[in-house]
């Protein structure tokens, strides 16, 4: 048994033990999203527009993540609508950010690895970076939208402005910490490498790889910051209509 298979099996067992039937549904959503990500790569490599593929696959990922993570349609509905609105806004932010950051493609550190390979693959690296930037925010968007919708709807008429504000600040704070430590943990090896090579601070903050990763994290941070108030607005509008 490979390490990946063993870890996946352990995850499945833990999710079933903790969440029961809903945990199994969440594991199925994870597997479905994995297949969707593989499909996105295949479609991009096949000549389809990376941004168009990211938008379509993103809709499917949000639907799978949100609707399979809860059995309450009064929570899933507003969360999905809010996620779609935020995804549209984040797409605009990602397009602008990628074009101004100039981080598409490979950095000079990749030159040795790419030696002997051709980078003329018929796909725009800028569009690929936009696509990955959008897809990378979907988990944070779905998580924040579901959490806000569930919390506010559960409180119902008992929700007070102070309570709603506490929900917003708590979700944003925990999400931002998760994103920050995920970035630092995944990038720690490169930090050590930069230190060993005696890179100056100015060189690091202008390094293509570092800036590219940092920009990706900032996209997710912006997505979370947008998701919380947008979800709250959608839930309040739905409650007034109902």
From TrEMBL:
It comes from the Bacteria. The chain crosses the membrane at residues 35-68, 80-102, 128-153, 174-194, 214-235. Keywords: Membrane, Transmembrane, Transmembrane helix. Pfam families: YibE_F. Signal peptide: none annotated. PANTHER family: MEMBRANE PROTEIN, MEMBRANE PROTEIN-RELATED. This is YibE/F family protein.
């Amino acid at each position: 048994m490979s390490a990946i298979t063993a870890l996946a099996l352990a995850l499945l067992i833990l999710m079933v033990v903790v969440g029961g039937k809903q945990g199994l549904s969440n594991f199925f959503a994870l597997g479905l999203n994995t297949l969707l990500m593989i499909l996105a790569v295949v479609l991009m490599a096949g000549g389809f527009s990376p941004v168009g593929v990211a938008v379509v696959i993103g809709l499917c990922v949000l639907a799978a993540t949100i609707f399979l993570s809860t059995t309450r349609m009064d929570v899933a509905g507003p969360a999905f609508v809010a996620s779609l609105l935020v995804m549209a806004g984040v797409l605009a932010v990602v397009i602008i950010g990628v074009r101004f950051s100039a981080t598409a493609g490979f950095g000079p550190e990749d030159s040795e690895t790419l030696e002997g390979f051709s980078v003329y693959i018929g796909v725009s690296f800028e569009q690929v970076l936009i696509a990955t930037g959008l897809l990378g925010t979907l988990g944070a968007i779905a998580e924040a939208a579901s959490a806000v919708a569930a919390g506010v709807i559960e409180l119902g008429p008992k929700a007070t402005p102070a309570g709603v504000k506490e929900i917003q600040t708590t979700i944003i704070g925990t999400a931002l910490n998760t994103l920050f430590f995920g970035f630092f943990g995944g990038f720690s090896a490169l930090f050590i490498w930069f230190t060993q090579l005696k890179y100056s601070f100015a060189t690091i903050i202008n390094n293509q790889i570092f800036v590219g990763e940092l920009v990706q994290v900032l996209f997710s941070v912006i997505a979370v910051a947008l998701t919380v108030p947008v979800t709250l607005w959608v839930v309040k509008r739905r409650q007034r209509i109902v």
